[in-house]
Predict the structure of ABC transporter ATP-binding protein.
Amino acid sequence: MNLMSVRGVNKTFNAGENREVRALDNVNLTIEEGEFLVLLGPSGCGKTTLLRLLGGLESPTSGSIEFESSSSIHQDRSPIGFVFQEATLMPWRTALSNVELSAELSGIPAAERRERGLALLDLVGLSNFADKYPRELSGGMQQRVSLARALAHDPPLLLMDEPFGALDAQTRDTMNVELQRIWLESRKTAVFVTHSIQEAVFLADRIVLMATGPGRIQSITEVNFPRPRTIEMVEEPEFREIARKLRLDMGAAHDRAATLGG
Ligand SMILES: Nc1ncnc2c1ncn2[C@@H]1O[C@H](COP(=O)(O)OP(=O)(O)O)[C@@H](O)[C@H]1O
Ligand SMILES: [Mg+2]
C-alpha cells in the first residue's frame, strides 16, 4: 500500500543577490508502506532537502507531498521520526531521558514513556547504558540513542539523513547490520539518505538515485535480496552488479550535466 506521494515537487532556495538554487526539479515518488527506501546521490543533489520535505520541516515551492494511508495519522502524534546526520542528543540528559524526550513532547504518560524508552534502548542494544550521558558514549552509540529516540513516539515513518556518515567504516558496517535488524523488528517505513553505493545496496528495498544541477531523480532501482543480509553479501556477484549499474547511472548523470554546461 502507498504511504506517501510526492507529486511534481520543485524546491527553489533563495541564495541571495537574486540568485536561486534549484534544489529539486519535478520530483515524483511514491513511498510504499513498510519499505526501506534509500535516497542515494552526490553532495548537493537535494537528498537532505527531499528528506526535510518528507518530514514537513520544509515546504515545496510547488507540487505536493501527501500521506495517503490513514493508518499513518493516529492520535495527535507526529507521523515522523527523524535521525539527523550528527547525533543531536541533549548533553545534560541521560540516554534514557533523551529517548523519552520525543514521547514526552507527544504527551505520552511518564510510566509508559519509561517502559517504552527502556524497551527501545534494549532494541538498539544499549540496555546497560540507560543512565549514561552522551559524552560517555561512542559516536555509534550516540546514533543508536538518536535512532531509539526517533522511534519513541512510534511514528509510521522513519527518516534518516546519513546517520552513520561520521562513523569509521567498520562501525558503519556494524550499524548497518544493526539498523537492518531493528527495521526488521519494528517494520517501519524507512527513508534513508546516503552517498555510499555500498550502504545503499546493503540496506535498500529500492534505491532512488539522485543527480545534481538541478537536483532530480535519475533512476530507481529495486534490490530484491532476501533478509537478513550480511555485510559479506555485498561482495557477491548480484550485489556487485547492482552497484555497477548505479555507478553507470551516476556517470550518465554526470556526463549529461557536463554536456548541459552544468
Ligand atoms: N536553506 C538553504 N538555502 C539555500 N540553499 C540551500 C539551502 N538548503 C540547501 N540548499 C542548496 O540546495 C542544494 C541541495 O542541497 P541538499 O539538499 O543539502 O543536498 P544533499 O543533501 O544531497 O547534499 C544545494 O545546492 C544546497 O546548497
Ligand atoms: Mg545532505
Summary: The pocket of adenosine-5'-diphosphate (ligand 1) is lined by residues 13, 15, 21, 23, 41, 43-49, 215 (CB under 6 Å). The longest helix spans residues 237-259. Strands lie at 2-14, 20-32, 36-40, 62-67, 80-83, 157-161, 189-194, 206-211, 216-222.
